[in-house]
Amino acid sequence: MQPQRLKKTSGFTLIELIVVIVLLGVLAAAVSSFIKFGTQIYTETSARDQLVSSARFAIERLNRDIRNALPNSLRLTNADQCIEFTPILESTIYTDIPVLPEIARNTINVIKFDEPFDSNWQGIVYPLTPDDVYPLTPSNTDKIHNVDSISTVGDEWVITLENNVLFAEESPTQRLYFINGTVEYCLQSNTLLRSDSISSNVLMALDIYNTSPFEILAATLQRNAMVQVHFLFEKNNEQVTFNNEIQVLNVP
After folding, report:
1. What would the CATH number be for the domain defined by 90-179?
2. According to the model, what pLDDT value does residue 4 have?
């Protein structure tokens, strides 16, 4: 009988195992780096998109409000961190108001307008400075007065005021504005908030890190008043700067 041959057993050598482990380590490092950078790019892009969306919303709302502001009602408060103004509810052309040397009376004749009348309105003529507007009380100025009612006489409306008044002066454009309350935008703790007579501290935008966000440029003979807005948004090391200029459309 011939002796039975032993079968050779196959397996991995230590060197082969080390090579495989090294290759797997390199592959894992490459994959993890790819995932890390991909996640980082997605996070940065999302943060930038959020900043841009937040900035656009805040700037668009500011544009709408400030463009409808009462002329010369804009002022900075709270160490220039807030901007306050009086929105126009309605405006019209007056045909007759009581001014010196006339006798005081409580009626104004105006051209008809479309907005439904509200007894809480106040009428103001020819505001030249914020002092003519604030505080919104008739005792503060002879340019702003409480409205009581409106009636129709022929082709005009007659506005009846609460008291007999004399306006300080006439408007060169014969403009009468109706107002009620103020709107204020404030930058507090990197957050932009909006307040008015109905609601207060409504969130407009987050992650704003600059100081002195508002600047008011007074009206001149060549242009209307302007508001310059400077916002620096920052989130996850991403920064977006917005510089916007808003024109006040109305004149006294």
Report:
1. 2.40.10
2. 55
Q: How far apart are CA 56 and CA 58, in angstroms?
A: 6
Start-end ranges of CATH 2.40.10 in the chain?
A: 90-179
pLDDT along the chain (252 residues), means of 10: 55 75 78 68 68 83 93 93 94 91 91 83 91 75 85 86 88 92 94 92 91 89 88 83 89 82
